[in-house]
Input
Amino acid sequence: MADWIAVEWRGAHLRIWGMSRAGEVRSSREVGASGAEKPTDIVDALTAVLGETPSVPILASGLPALIEDPERGYVPVPCAPPGLANAVKCQGVGLDLWLLPGLRQAQPTDLTKGAETRIKGYLALNPKFDGVICLPEAQTVWAHISAGEIVSFRSFLTSTLRDCLAQSRLLGGAVSADAWDEAAFVEAVAGAMTRPAEMAARLSSLRAAHVLGSADSGQEAARLAGVLIGVELAAARPYWLGQQVALVGEDKLCRAYAAALGAQAVPVERTDADRMTLEGLKAAFAEA
Amino acid sequence: MADWIAVEWRGAHLRIWGMSRAGEVRSSREVGASGAEKPTDIVDALTAVLGETPSVPILASGLPALIEDPERGYVPVPCAPPGLANAVKCQGVGLDLWLLPGLRQAQPTDLTKGAETRIKGYLALNPKFDGVICLPEAQTVWAHISAGEIVSFRSFLTSTLRDCLAQSRLLGGAVSADAWDEAAFVEAVAGAMTRPAEMAARLSSLRAAHVLGSADSGQEAARLAGVLIGVELAAARPYWLGQQVALVGEDKLCRAYAAALGAQAVPVERTDADRMTLEGLKAAFAEA
Output
């Protein structure tokens, strides 16, 4: 039996960990899930997965949009990663369900929803870390960390763009999910960083090369990602230039970012996203 | 009865004009159609729409990918817009079906599929035109025209990106099809032209403003388009700077490009895409 339940809702995935009070994982589940629009969606999903309505406390990350008051749903930076003191209890759902807020930045306007918990986990394991954490996912977040606080951050819809384009009528046929040509990727990153404005034209060239049969599928997939990540790196330069960067994310995407940053001579360290999420939820719950 | 049939297959639309030998339109139809993968798809679609298999010659634009030999499917620039001498007859389909090729450019690698016919139509009506034609659509084409030839061109998947993002999980909710705030659009264009690399971050800000409820739907739709068109204008500067630009495209999209170019003090003239397509097909057929 779990003493409490850690939950993360990210993209189309719901992760559930049954936890002991001491922070040991007693069980874990991962299921596909469409978006949660209201707190009862979480209750329904948990009950369906666990086979019963849980009676222990539940702490959830990645769902700040479900907190009714945006002032409480997003904590303004600079701040320490949100913890139990910032969590908002869901009313009238019949469960002891707490939602962790995201981060908010006024200028440039930006939000996070889940990255803040992974940052919390990373800092729990690396309390003296000062530098930059990059969290590549559908919405990639770059965060400046100093003295245990998130000083500023910027997020990019780079992978959202990639996934959209990979499913589009014009480019869809050109991108295989599996093939990958590392040299083509690094070259595309370099080209895009030099002339970022040409992004939509480079995508058009990619499509033309596909129609003419002048590129293989590994080159095509790598070039699509390379163009988009290169444009992101051009804009995120103030984050990585002269910095040590900790990459926290899914393995394949992090390897691409590591290759792109490595080509700019930026030293990187890679860490698993799910593990950091769990460490962040554990660190938050331990504040009880 | 038609003497010949003019056809355009663009995106998800099939346009069919029944023509007299003198170039008068006897009938016209527009139907929704998914992609044509092989010449018999055109035969099937025409037969379904017309209620019989046509016995008159058919000249089709927008389907260069169906021409088996890419060398004949795309004419290299510089060249005059492809005409009947470049058209390729489909074999073994039981119809007198001719496909017009697109344009091909070696460096930067690029192709057109349909824009070349609208350019032909525009030049048929404006034979002395020297300057730049911009054809905004799913794949926007910018073309330098001199002495009746397409000297060079560049295409951008800007509207493809917009449509992809408008349907995405992260941004989908933020974009209404109808609302439009012109001032927000022009401001977003200017911002994106200044720092084009920040595109994916600006999209993230757009999402954040939507979640926080700090923008109305007209501002959101206009900012999404403005960011993407602004990045395109930054890259297409060699095409429009100091030029007279003829815009050929669908009305709403052309009005957006006209506003963006107008803010850069570029004089523009707007012309309807369907009309230019028909004029281009007529000009090609008249070469018989």
Summary: Chain A is about 40% helix and 25% strand. Chain A has a mean pLDDT of 94. Chain A has two domains: 4-127+274-285, 156-271.
